[in-house]
Design brief:
Belongs to the helicase family. PriA subfamily. By secondary structure, this protein is α/β, with parallel strands linked by helices. The chain folds into 7 domains: about 120 residues, GIY-YIG endonuclease; about 60 residues, no CATH class; about 60 residues, Winged helix-like DNA-binding domain superfamily/Winged helix DNA-binding domain (Arc Repressor Mutant, subunit A, Orthogonal Bundle); about 200 residues, Rossmann fold (3-Layer(aba) Sandwich), CATH 3.40.50.300; about 180 residues, 3-Layer(aba) Sandwich (Rossmann fold), CATH 3.40.50; about 80 residues, no CATH class; about 90 residues, Ribosomal protein S10 (Alpha-Beta Plaits). The chain is built from 26 helices and 33 strands. The strands form 8 sheets. Strands 14-15-13-16-17-12-18 form a 7-stranded parallel sheet, sandwiched between helices. Strands 19-29-28-20-27-26 form a 6-stranded parallel sheet, with helices on both faces. A 5-stranded antiparallel sheet has the order 2-1-4-3-5. Helix 21 links the parallel strand 26 and strand 27. Helix 2 crosses helix 3 and helix 2 crosses helix 16. The longest helix has 17 residues. The chain is globular. About 5% of the residues have low confidence. The protein binds adenosine-5'-triphosphate and zinc ion. The site of adenosine-5'-triphosphate has 21 residues, from helix 13.
């Protein structure tokens, strides 16, 4: 090519680059489309996969660029405001994965990106207030005239109004939170000042300083505690319990109103401090873990997995290893192989806070190569980990559900531990299943994916038995330890023989006694938290329900109270609580419906279990593990440490106790009331019960001494219970699969739950019946539609719910049906918030 020609080519490129003037942006809004913006002349044009800030309605939103083009949209495009990244944040494989999720789960692409990227913390979307001219006038007028009335508010509110105006007087715009802390103004008050045009409101989106800090709440000593309300006392107790200081983000788990901390700060009882995020120090678990030489079964499993790492071939494998077979060591060895070959590896776990031992083993094996991503991270910490991973500083990623999106370079291996666990399904948009996304990601990256479990989901099991996945089995526990002997205790017989309904059977009490006397440890599962999970009025037969949900309220006792008539002077404890929306109320003296005094507390939860056990075994050192006792990330660690050291010799708790813990002193496991779950309206009920029984039984006999399990049941002939007791996964799978085949349930069909909802009952009912009629009149081949029916939880957080269960023979048919239904809903003017599409639904409530 001659010089003139190349000059021409260059000119053409320049012209072309000037013509690239629009970009499509996926925004985190519930609309299934991208939005087109103009690339301003001054701005560096963004690349596909970069974040940009754009105006959207009255807001400024962060979105991801999905396409750059020259097609002007029908309406004038607004310009992008800022380009946040110089280089694409998301590599092509993750862009492709996002597109797949969006289409498979029918979720807006922008919302998929929001789930994938933990970086929204880097962009602050703030609401700012500024003083208006009118406000200034009021301020000066009242300053001149002393305390004359300037509004119709109470004197106290007027003082606060004055403080707000005074604070803003210099003219700066201030954040709501700062303004409120400084002046004690409520949001209502600020809003009323806005209405009076004393203040102006503006929003801003600014990129944050990359130096991240963590905000700590620090308890100040030497203060006389003035009269405090229950929430304040609760918060102070939590701080004191944590040694006097705690990240503010962890305090949020107490579910108290935001104002509680603020008022404690104002009263000088607590101080807030910003500290540098020394995340690594904070998460580095104490102690180190043993590294074992693999036994022959582990060696075989490892070899089969390692053989394909780096081969560039997509290879899904199901590793079914009984509880205590040493799956973790196999994962670690495979991850090491990936690392040695120059690849990264991701390990997904259901909840990392529940298994700190796993984190310890990873640090021992991989040191600073490890990045941990879990739900207790605050946004800044999460973003920091994300950057380390993306920079290639951490090539071993361990985390919960969303870690499947970790931006590793050169992915070689993904392991999904406890792949059957329902926490892998996200219960909000995008409703993805991390196990399935892991398989898809491995496919896109041509890498190896291992799904591990003692109780694989029937979906994965079928994929393995039909040859879609490779199957590796480890049928024995390590070191020739036997699986525990499981006995069923028939509670119907127990009732006939003792003549009374008891929480614990005679056998369980005897065996617990004997276990404790031998100096061993016992675990008892009571899979409901709280004291009583039903409060019934004996006179009218009504159960006390949540105001917002069609859910029975759970009774929680105050801490330390020992009997039902122990009136608790502090209002902290004694309460009825909805486990779905968090609604709380005090315990009424009389039935709210019929005013009878005969309120009856039924159904024992873990709190009651603990109390009853303490009465039966006054010398036992009892610990409780449930959502009420395990809140922050350190609670679990502390509890497990007390178990390992033997400080606790009897543990009672909810299904949390069944999760992967490896406590060698436990020789007895008792299961109380786990079979109520068989009656839940979900085709997976039997599978869930089988998994729970197998997993909890698996906690027994993991050390030198063999274990024993006692399962109290009213359904001793049910196959899920019998076969769990016999450790016979294959027989269970066969029987359950037969049932699924007859009933056209997964894995023999694909299924979606379509929820129609509205705060107005008539509206929800009308919409669902209109959709129902349309379904009935429209022929969908290979599709079965159940419904409309009221959802098992017919009202949730004040919203009425109906649903359809849609089953199809083929994935494509299901997708087509759902898209058609959504299009129909648009015609029927059902707004997008009125519909929830849950593809591969796990929870059908
Ligand atoms: N080769 C080995 N020799 C001896 N002990 C081992 C070996 N491999 C692992 N272990 C130990 O066996 C115990 C069980 O291992 P691990 O927790 O990995 O089991 P698992 O298969 O994940 O069980 P679960 O499904 O119940 O979580 C651990 O205490 C572990 O340290
Ligand atoms: Zn509720």
């Amino acid at each position: 090519m001659n010089p003139a020609g190349s000059e021409n080519a260059l000119a053409e490129i320049l012209v072309a680059s000037r013509m690239l003037q629009f970009c499509d942006v996926a925004l985190p809004v519930p609309l299934d489309r991208v939005f087109t913006y103009k690339i301003g002349e001054a701005a560096e044009p963004p690349a596909i996969g970069c974040r940009v800030i754009v105006p959207f309605r009255n807001e400024k939103l962060t979105g991801i660029v999905t396409r750059i083009h020259q097609e002007p949209p029908p309406v004038e495009a607004k310009p992008i405001l800022a380009v946040l990244d110089g280089a694409p944040l998301l590599a092509p494989d993750l862009m492709e994965l996002a597109a797949w999720i969006s289409s498979y789960y029918l979720a807006p692409l922008g919302e998929v990106f929001r789930s994938m990227l933990p970086l929204m913390a880097e962009v602050k979307h703030q609401i700012l207030y500024r003083i208006a001219d009118k406000g200034r006038e009021v301020l000066y007028a009242s300053a001149n005239q002393g305390s004359s009335r300037h509004s119709r508010k109470s004197a106290e509110d007027q003082d606060v109004e004055y403080d707000v105006l005074n604070y803003l007087e210099a003219g700066q715009a201030e954040r709501v939170s700062k303004l409120r802390t400084a002046t004690g103004a409520t949001l209502d008050l600020l809003r009323s000042m806005l209405r009076k045009k004393w203040l102006l409101r503006e929003t801003s989106a600014v990129q944050r300083d990359a130096r991240r800090t963590i905000r700590y709440a620090v308890l100040l000593h030497d203060v006389r505690i003035p009269k405090l309300n229950a929430n304040q006392q609760c918060l102070l107790a939590e701080l004191a319990g944590a040694g006097g200081e705690m990240p503010v983000a962890e305090l949020r788990r107490l579910d108290l109103p935001d104002s509680t901390l603020g008022s404690l700060v104002r009263r000088g009882l607590v101080r807030l401090e910003e500290r540098p995020a020394d995340f690594h120090l904070a998460m580095q678990p104490m102690g180190s873990a043993l590294v074992h030489t693999l036994n022959p079964a582990q060696q075989a499993a490892f070899k089969a997995i390692a053989a394909s790492i780096g081969s560039g071939v997509f290879k899904p494998t199901l590793l079914r290893g009984v509880t205590g077979s040493g799956k973790t060591a196999v994962y670690l060895a495979a991850m090491q192989t990936a690392l040695d070959a120059g690849y990264s590896a991701i390990l997904l776990v259901p909840e990392i806070g529940l298994t700190p031992a796993m984190a310890a083993q990873l640090y021992t094996a991989f040191g600073s190569e490890v990045a941990l991503l879990h739900s207790a991270l605050i946004p800044g910490e999460r973003a920091e980990q994300w950057h380390r991973i993306r920079a290639g500083e951490a090539r071993i990623v361990v985390g919960t559900r969303s870690a499947v999106f970790a931006p590793v370079t050169r992915l070689g291996l993904i392991v999904v531990d406890e792949e059957h666990d329902s926490s892998y399904k996200q219960e909000e948009t995008p409703r993805y299943h991390a196990r399935d996304v892991a398989v898809m990601r491995a496919k896109l990256d041509s890498s190896v994916v291992v799904l591990g479990s003692a109780t694989p989901s029937l979906e994965s099991w079928r994929n393995a038995t039909t040859g879609k996945y490779a199957l590796i089995e480890m049928a024995q526990r390590v070191a020739d330890r036997p699986l525990p002997v499981v006995e069923l205790v028939d509670m119907r017989k127990e009732f006939q023989e003792t003549g009374q309904e008891q929480l614990f059977s005679r056998l369980l009490i005897e065996e617990t006694q004997a276990t404790l006397e031998r100096g061993e440890q016992a675990i008892i599962l009571l899979n409901r938290r709280g004291y009583s999970f039903v409060v019934l009025c004996r006179a009218c037969g009504e159960k006390l329900q949540c105001e917002n949900c069609a859910i029975s309220l759970t009774y929680h006792r105050p801490h330390g109270a020992t009997s039902l008539d122990d009136a608790d002077p502090s209002p902290t404890g004694q309460r009825l609580q909805c486990h779905y929306c968090g609604y709380k109320r005090t315990v009424p003296k009389v039935c709210p419906d019929c005013e009878s005094e005969h309120l009856h507390f039924l159904g024992a939860g873990s709190q009651q279990g603990e109390q009853r056990l303490q009465e039966i075994f006054p010398h036992a050192r009892i610990g409780r593990m449930d959502r009420d006792t395990v809140r922050g990330r350190h609670d679990m660690e502390r509890l497990l440490q007390r178990l390992h050291s033997g400080e606790i010799n009897l543990l009672v708790g909810t299904q949390m106790i069944a999760k992967g813990h490896d406590i060698h002193g436990v020789t007895l496991v008792g299961v109380v009331g786990a079979d109520f779950a068989l009656g839940l309206p979900n085709f997976r009920a039997a599978e869930r019960v089988f998994q729970l029984l197998t997993q909890v039984s698996g906690r027994a006999g993991r050390g030198e001494l063999p274990g024993r399990v006692l399962v109290q049941t009213y359904h001793s002939d049910h196959y899920a219970i019998r076969l769990a007791a016999a450790h016979d996964f294959k027989a269970f799978a066969e029987k359950e699969l037969q049932f699924r085949r007859w009933m056209h349930y997964p894995p023999f069909s694909v299924l979606a739950n379509l929820i129609v909802q509205s705060p107005r009952l008539e509206e929800a009912a009308a919409w669902s019946s209109q959709l129902g009629q349309w379904f009935a009149n429209t022929a969908f081949e290979g599709v079965r539609i159940l419904g409309p029916a009221t959802a098992p939880i017919s009202r949730l957080k004040r919203i009425y719910r109906f649903h359809f269960v849609i089953k199809a023979e083929k994935r494509a048919t299901l997708a087509r049906t759902l898209r058609a239904a959504l299009a129909r809903a648009e015609v029927l003017k059902i707004p997008s918030r009125g519909l929830i599409v849950d593809v591969d639904a796990v929870n059908l409530m």
